[in-house]
Design a protein that fits this description.
This protein has 495 residues and is α/β, with parallel strands linked by helices. Helices cover 36% and strands 24% of the residues. The chain has 2 domains: 192 residues, 3-Layer(aba) Sandwich (Rossmann fold); 226 residues, Rossmann fold. Strands 6-7-8-3-9-10 form a 6-stranded mixed β-sheet, with helices on both faces. A 6-stranded mixed β-sheet has the order 16-19-20-13-21-22, sandwiched between helices. The longest helix has 16 residues. The protein binds adenosine-5'-triphosphate and magnesium ion.
Length: 495
């Protein structure tokens, strides 16, 4: 059992780290140790303190007390610059690229220090970017503007940035949350290669399968405390869940048969979704799923006509989409999902001001109690409904984005990766909620890169390829294989 790891050098050691934010004890005396050449996974529920611990390591946050040692040296004043000089690189939960710069400019900016941008060797810079992208198996065009990239493509650029700095310690905070399984597998190949080169990796993820397959050791956090540190070969999934949640979790996909009603949404020439139906949308990244969702919701007006509740409409703006009874939970929650500066209560009532306002004035008590209900239903971890959403953990922000739409009860709800970054316990709750919405007669368009989620939840699954619908599978004919063959364009006769 992992003897090599136990013998190898300790590269990072945290002892008794405490960190509080106003009213929240995010880390309570956490100790953590990382050895050369190991993948050390950090897991725990949303809000457990994983990202906070990562930021203490990178110097983005200073602990209230406790010590950080890197390569045996105690770091008195950590900072992003200090940690980078020590060979620590990080890939965060949310990509942070400059939207108006190209892919290679973004990579260059991360690598070139001290006035490097003044002397611009365009050719060398693009070649460097290309080489780094190739190393992670990506064919991304270095000249593309960051604003035109999908979430997955942005994450690929972030990984290239981190690799380019020749890190000895690499922190990855949910790097696969927005990746498809194929892209994620590719990333693991890369992680294994880095490990063989002696890079030590801290890996944060909610996908327990990938952790069990790739990690050497696993540290579990719960409510800011270190609950356990185990060798990955000594634990299994149920035990990890038990350690994380402190209870066991039932079925993840509580799909129930719901009476299917009239057509609520018709996309001419493609598909229709009926009341009570969950229509899954599968496809590779870039296959056009998000683009379709954005078009339906009026974010990318197309001028084409769809039918909502049997009435032809042309949707040219989100405001009109909402009036027609459409809701949209976007993949990138920072763009249209939540307003980080606003409180939970304000965000929850944002899409439905009518229900909490009287004579044009917002009734804050109604707003707060409405939000409080969703905070409890979705188990959103927050000190109160009056804290800015920006202070919540990633998964909890996602839950607020969902709550915001649940209040408005649209007739057609488009969910783009609704459980991305959400922990196992909350995932089951969100799935249950989606089924309840279907039972109430809502038509649901569910976009997900996780095939088990799509297969578990959907009545029918549409598969997209190259911007169009390649086929539709009924629940009984949909399998991982039939979906993938449609997504890749092999003909198997499955459709
Ligand atoms: N800047 C901040 N201000 C106030 N509270 C914060 C801030 N950053 C984090 N917190 C709180 O600290 C706790 C731990 O958050 P953290 O982001 O570390 O969780 P996490 O384990 O990464 O969760 P997730 O899986 O959802 O990403 C949460 O309760 C969060 O609300
Ligand atoms: Mg986090």
């Amino acid at each position: 059992m992992g003897t090599q790891i136990e013998d190898s050098k300790i590269v990072l050691s945290l002892a008794d780290i405490q960190k509080s934010f106003a009213g929240v004890r995010a880390l309570r005396g956490v100790s953590f140790e990382l050895r050369a050449g190991e993948v050390h996974a950090l897991i725990g529920e949303n809000g457990a303190g994983k990202s906070t611990l990562a930021k203490v390591i990178t110097g983005d946050l200073l602990p209230d007390s406790g010590t950080v040692e890197v390569f045996g040296n105690s770091i008195a004043e950590n900072s992003p610059i200090v940690s980078r000089q020590l060979g620590i690189a990080a890939i965060y939960q949310q990509p942070s690229l400059f939207p108006d710069l190209t892919v290679s400019e973004n990579i260059a900016l991360a690598l070139e220090t001290g006035g490097g941008l003044r002397r611009v060797y365009w050719k060398a810079r693009n070649q460097r970017a290309k080489a780094l992208l190739e190393r992670i198996g990506s064919k991304l065009d270095p000249w593309r503007l960051a604003r035109t990239l999908s979430m997955a493509e942005q994450q690929i650029v972030e990984i290239a940035k981190a690799l380019g700095t020749d890190a000895r310690i690499l922190l990855m905070d949910e790097p696969t949350a927005v990746l498809t399984e194929r892209e994620a597998e590719h990333l693991f190949g890369l992680v294994r290669r880095l490990r063989e080169d002696g890079v030590a990796i801290v890996y944060i993820s909610h996908r327990l399968e990938e952790i069990l397959a790739s990690a050497d050791r696993i540290t579990v956090l719960r409510d800011g405390e270190r609950i356990a540190c185990r060798s990955a070969s000594d634990v299994d999934r149920p035990e990890l869940i038990q350690l994380m949640v402190g209870r066991s979790i039932g079925s993840v996909f509580p799909k129930r048969t719901v009476p299917i009603g009239d057509v609520a949404l018709e996309v001419p020439g493609a598909f229709s979704v009926r009341r009570g139906e969950i229509f899954g949308l599968a496809g590779l990244v870039g296959s056009g799923r998000t683009e379709l969702a954005r078009t339906l919701f009026g974010l990318t007006p197309s001028g084409s006509t769809i039918e909502v509740n049997g009435r032809p409409v042309r949707i040219d703006s989100p405001a009109q989409a909402i009036r027609e009874g459409l809701g949209y939970l976007p993949e990138d929650r920072r763009l249209h999902g939540v307003v980080l500066e606003m409180t939970i209560a304000e965000n929850v009532s944002l899409a439905s001001l009518a229900t909490v306002s009287r004579h044009g004035l917002i009734d804050t008590t109604a707003e707060e109690s409405l939000a409080a209900r969703y905070v409890s239903d979705l188990r959103i971890k927050a000190p109160s409904v009056n804290v800015p959403v920006g202070t919540l953990s990633g998964g909890n922000q996602q839950k607020v984005a969902l709550a915001r739409w649940l209040v408005t009860t649209p007739r057609v709800m488009i969910l783009d990766e609704p459980t991305q970054g959400v922990d196992v316990g909350s995932k089951a709750e969100i799935h249950e909620l989606i089924v309840q919405l279907a039972e109430q007669g809502m038509a649901i368009l569910l976009i997900s890169s996780e095939l088990p989620e799509l297969l578990g939840m959907s009545d029918r699954i549409g598969v997209m390829r190259g911007g169009t619908l390649a086929g539709i599978l009924n629940r009984d004919e949909a399998t991982q294989e039939s979906i993938m063959s449609l997504a890749f364009g092999h003909s198997t006769g499955a459709a």
